[in-house]
Specification:
The protein is of the alpha+beta class. It has six helices and 14 strands. The strands form three sheets. Strands 1, 2, 3, 4, 5, 13 and 14 form a seven-stranded antiparallel sheet that branches. The relative contact order is 0.23.
Length: about 290
């Protein structure tokens, strides 16, 4: 599948800001056998006085920008063409949860893709007993790690309501779990917390999702949004497998990856510091178009 992706992030500041520095993670990356970035362009308005790029520990592309002068807005624009492989995974080769724990005990690695990084609590994902108990139902009813992860994704989709007004960007999974409402970030964090509570490594994935309108209805420009889903380590033979609890499915050719980390804090689109005396408003527009 070939896609053209356009992203715009717009921030209006109530008072002029200055001395700001930001880390921006919005550019997709090439991943062997998953996706290939053919071309990508990232621009900012106003133009930064300093701009550099680097690859972080988990392999995500990070752009740093800095300003010393005053400005009252910030626009981030991404344009990219990405080819996503239409890959059909093999049969379920994952072990039972008990077998997975045996494999983890024998695996001692600090490489970026090591499952050891994704077992413990992280800044945005605590290990919560109630969420762990919720996940345990899926584990008890299934024979393998992959089946348990799929069952948990399906249950979250069934039991939770998608509600943009219920949570905020800093809402934690414990609160979202109590509400049984939220957005893709909340669903992913709840699934991660549940799996880690059972000893299953799970990571947060940030990216884009091509949405398909109902039959007979026109596609809305800019209706797509940045999306989040979950990577689950399903053992040494199956490796990392990705699940989308928001849409009750395994991630597929309509999912375009920006990067992954322990939780949202590792791959948030933009973070930083600035000097100002007021708040700000933000708008996001994402357009994912399949190229025939």
């Amino acid at each position: 599948m070939l896609y053209d992706v356009r992203l715009e992030l717009h921030y209006d500041y109530k008072a002029s800001v200055h001395g700001d520095r930001h880390l921006v993670r919005v550019s997709p990356v090439s991943i062997p056998r998953v996706q290939r970035v053919i071309a990508a362009s990232l621009s900012f308005e106003p133009r930064p006085e300093q701009e550099t790029s680097f690859t972080d520990y988990f392999g995500n592309l990070v752009t740093t920008i800095a300003y010393s002068g005053y400005h009252d807005h910030l626009d981030v624009r991404l344009s990219a063409r990405v080819q996503v492989e239409d890959f059909i995974g093999p049969a379920d080769l994952s072990p039972s949860v008990a077998g997975l724990k045996d494999e983890l005990r024998a695996l001692w690695s600090v490489a970026p893709d090591s499952p050891q990084h994704f077992l413990a609590a992280s800044p945005r994902v605590p290990l919560d007993p109630a969420i762990a108990a919720y996940a345990q139902v899926s584990i008890a009813d299934t024979p393998s790690v992959r089946a348990a992860a799929m069952d948990l994704a399906l249950r979250i989709h069934r039991d939770f309501s998608y509600d943009k007004e219920a949570t905020k960007v800093d809402t934690g999974p414990v609160e979202a779990f109590a509400l049984k409402r939220g957005v893709c970030q909340d669903f992913a964090h709840v699934m991660i917390a549940g799996l880690r509570g059972a000893g299953i490594p799970a990571a947060y994935v940030s990216g884009f999702l091509r949405t398909i309108p109902p039959k007979g209805q026109p596609r809305l420009e800019g209706s797509d949004a940045m999306h989040a889903w979950v990577r689950v380590w399903c053992g040494q033979h199956a490796g990392w497998v990705e699940f989308d609890p928001t849409n009750a499915m395994m991630a597929g050719p309509d999912h375009i990856t920006i990067g992954h980390g322990r939780d949202y804090s590792d791959v948030s689109p933009i973070v930083g510091v600035l000097r100002t005396s007021g708040g700000h408003s933000a708008k996001q527009s994402v357009d994912v178009v399949r190229v025939e």
